[in-house]
Specification:
Blueprint lengths: L4 E3 L4 E6 L2 E10 L2 E8 L9 H15 L3 E4 L2 H8 L10
Parallel strand pairs: 4-5
Antiparallel strand pairs: 1-2, 2-3, 3-4
Length: about 90
């Protein structure tokens, strides 16, 4: 598993595992991070890869003092179930 990458040119966070890349498309407006879509390649689905990506993304937002508005249903559910990051939702 690799470290979280913020690919700002593509407006997405990325994380590699097993030679595959999971990603989260985002928009940054002021101090609010909108998470539009989270996806993992089929081979990584069910392995927790998207959850690890969300955890790293949420920690990055927290470290940067950002609030998160999840547009993606997966991101919204993950944040709602994560007590350490629930307070980032705005």
């Amino acid at each position: 598993m690799s470290e979280l990458r913020n690919n700002s040119a593509a407006s997405r966070y990325e994380m590699d595992e097993q030679g595959q890349t999971s990603w989260a498309d985002y928009r940054l407006q002021g101090e609010r991070l909108y998470i539009d879509h989270v996806e993992s390649p089929p081979i990584l689905r069910g392995t927790g890869a998207a959850g690890r990506l969300m955890q790293a993304l949420a920690q990055d937002a927290k470290d940067r003092g950002l609030k998160i508005t999840p547009i993606c249903g997966y991101a919204a559910t993950w944040l709602r179930r994560s007590p350490d990051y629930r307070d980032l939702v705005a």
